[in-house]
Amino acid sequence: MKKIMIMVSAVLVSSLLLAGCMKTPSLDQLVPGGLGGLIGQTDKESPSQTIELTDIVPEKTDRVDPDSGFRNSYEAYLDAKSVLIDRMTGAFNQVPEAGMEAVFSLFGFSVIDFLMWPAAIIWEDEATARQMAGVFGALDMKFERKEGKSILTYTQDGDTASFVGEPMSGADGYIFTASFGGREKLRSEFVRTSYGFAGQYYHLEDDGKTTRFMIAIEGQDGATGIEKDMARPGPLTGKEASDFPLSAPEWYRIQGKRVTGMTSEGKAIDAVLP
């Protein structure tokens, strides 16, 4: 079962990336040994191995105070987001009525990070940024900082692309936009709130369909929401409530050992984990 999930996940990532304009490294670059190596590592795991929710905690590092800069705030946000998505995925996987729909929907929050690869580059100096961009297939890269913005331009598959990062006005957050051929295809935001973090992603596909991903992180608890085929939402402000993702037609939430949600098919979920 784990092998099938890994293969399906790899195909899903590939199809989503091919549907868009951004590229990521091949699986051989992302995972030593490629898919075969990943499956080999999975085979070494005990089939009865389970992960307790209390075991999933943020890794302690020697990183400086996240408030010291936007880069550290962004890294803190990604760390918190990763912990929450991992915890929610493990939790909903234990709820039969959630089926696989909740797990695959949550997987979309990880896929969107693949599309956001330039966000890891704009904090670097130009030489380092150019080297990293080449790994992702970006050519003729130009990098500049002006008026508080970090601007990365490059060509990919013959198309001109640009990625812009800028601080959020009036809040401790950041906004990223990615454009291809002069058309904005992805907008991502994160902001600190009184309870933790709020974030949203707005993705425009080549066929004109759109998806909005919303996330609120409160310690190890939080909520996610997914809304499709909608106009671009307004920017985050930092005043979003911790349940703002629940405004979406499809949403999932974890509070302690209680998981609730609404699938895209309208099936309600409300369960308490053992």
Description:
- With 274 residues, the protein is α+β, with helices and mostly antiparallel strands.
- It folds into two domains: 1-46, no CATH class; 69-272, no CATH class.
- It has six helices and eleven strands.
- An eleven-stranded antiparallel β-sheet has the order 1-2-3-4-5-6-7-8-9-10-11, covered by helices on one side.
- β10 (258-262) and β11 (268-272) form a beta hairpin.
- α1 runs antiparallel to α3 (34-43), α1 (2-19) crosses α5 and α4 (70-92) runs antiparallel to α5 (101-115).
- The model is unreliable at 1-68 (pLDDT under 50).
Order of helices and strands: HHHHHHEEEEEEEEEEE
Any idea what the radius of gyration is?
Answer: 19 Å
Low-confidence stretches are 1-68
How many separate helices? 6
Q: Give the biggest beta sheet.
A: 11 strands, antiparallel
Number of domains as seen in the coordinates:
2
For the termini, the CA-CA separation is 23 Å
Total count of strands: 11
**What is the overall pLDDT average?**
78
Strand content: 25-35%
Helical percentage: 25-40%
